[in-house]
Every structure is written in C-alpha cells, then in structure tokens.
Amino acid sequence: MAGRFVISEDGRGGFRFALIANNGQTLAIGEGFPSKVACVNGIETVRRNAPEATIDDQSEQSG
Q: Residue 32 maps to which CATH number?
C-alpha cells in the first residue's frame, strides 16, 4: 500500500493530516497539530510505528 499523506489547514490555525489510499479512500485522519512542522512530525511517527502495529479491539461487541 503506497497511498499518500495529505496535509490541510483545520480552519482554526492548525493542521491535520489524512492517509489516503490509492483508490481515494480516507484510511486515517490525524489529530490537530499547532504547526505544519508538528503535523509532519506526526506523519513521521505513524510511518515509523505502524508497519507492524497489532489490532487491540477494546469494543464491547464481538463479530
């Protein structure tokens, strides 16, 4: 999955990122960041930590 990260302004002076799949589907949206540098750092954190991430399902519903 290549996908791409898209950075946008959030309308309150901050920045957010979205991870977009090749088919255009939004896979994830990052929290609000106070600066573009902080937003890019958030993207880099996801890149470093997610390749081997496990699923921790804490929902009450099964199935």
A: 3.30.160.160
Find the angle CA(53)-CA(35)-CA(23) to the nearest 5 degrees: 50
Q: Determine contact, residues 32/42, Cβ cutoff 8 Å.
A: no
**What's the one-letter identity of residue 51?**
P
Whether the per-residue pLDDT at 34 is higher than 70: the answer is yes
Q: CA nearest 7: which of 61, 35, 52, 48? A: 35
Residue whose structure tokens are 């106070």: 34
Distances (CA, A) of 41 to 8, 11, 15, 48, 58: 14, 20, 12, 10, 27
Number of domains in the chain: 1
Tell me which residue range forms the domain holding 41: 4-49
* Global pTM value: 0.78
Q: Is 41 helix (H, G, I), strand (E, B) or coil?
A: helix
